[in-house]
Amino acid sequence: MAWLTDEDIIREITLKKISGVNVQIIISDAKENYVRIAKLKEYLKYAGVLSIGITKPFMHNKFAIIDDRFIINGSYNWSYGARSSEENIFIITLDKSVEEDTALLKKFQLQFQYLSHRVRAVSIADFEELNNFRQRIANPIAVISELDESEILLREEFEEAVKNSINNSLKANIQFDYTGLLQRMQKDGGGVEFVKRLINDEIQTGDMKSGFRKLQEPIPHRVDLSLEYLVSQERFQSLFEPRQVDFCLNLMKQYHL
Length: 257
Known about the structure:
With 257 residues, the protein is mainly alpha-helical. 50% of the residues lie in helices and 11% in strands. The chain has 2 domains: 7-140, Endonuclease, Chain A, CATH 3.30.870.10; 146-253, no CATH class. Helix 2 (38-45) links the parallel strand 1 and strand 2. It is elongated.
């Protein structure tokens, strides 16, 4: 992958590694890949295999092979910026009984092996090596995609807003399992992913979570401290799917918020 900066994707790959799936990642030496490396460190923590292609010409490859059954290929870089771009991507389901599919798989496997064994490929085994590589790259902040950088910062701002809402709920004597919520948020990959899953559950079941119901109980209501209220705020709406935003906006209208 030429650019791998979407932390949600890195997190999902790491979860697959934790579950016992064998995972190998090859990324380019593009500076953008090493501005924020916390998720890559997490991947390495669980013995994920990471190689960096130091190549000339630049490694523009963008593909994945999954279980020798699926190929993901296209112009899509795995970055936040690509989410809002007009990108071409193909997900190919292979049938090994079909000769053409077997030949296609072999071509991608050979390409991956070629990239894995290029003379200048650097194998990254631990955090220290990753940090050292990052330090050798000059001024990465200057070249990172502005859209990626702004989304990462906005996600961090949202996560802080979630923590503030929980703290303010406790100050208002509305009891939450604060520690449990933080642990769940970390497990889900951060504030945005945590809230996405929560709201999806509410949409699918039609039942509000216990945290929201507790904020309904006081008179006056304190749903302004809810996670749903945060999603309804204009500055955070771009982090969520339209149906999630609409759900929260309609919910807040019931409370004239």
